[in-house]
């Protein structure tokens, strides 16, 4: 399967990894849009949240738990952060393997960017 994030999970494509467990992996975004910009992904290939099947919803607890862990590790838990998922065309989703953007490390702009 030609999925860049699956290749990162497999180690075929290098990444700056910040977290890994049996279900979830996280690495720094290659084009950071904030001082801290980490991508958190499930190891299971699911194109978007629209494609999640019954039985896989626990992945989102795993992802959110990893996000809090990473925020603490990177020292932004107290200053604050955003956890963002893009789903589909209007959101600008570019990589069709579920991922959450963990962003912080500075004062972020408004959410209603168009
Ligand atoms: P999306 O727009 O799909 O929500 O976000 C995709 C993100 O993946 C973008 O922020 C982009 O910079 C990041 N990205 C795309 N390819 C790679 C890659 O090969 N390595 C890393 N670390 N990030 C990537
Ligand atoms: Zn994938």
From TrEMBL:
SUPFAM superfamilies: HIT-like. This is Histidine triad nucleotide-binding protein. InterPro entries: Histidine_triad_HIT (IPR001310), HIT-like (IPR011146), HIT-like_sf (IPR036265). It comes from the Bacteria. Residues 4-113 form the HIT domain. A motif (Histidine triad motif) lies at residues 97-101.
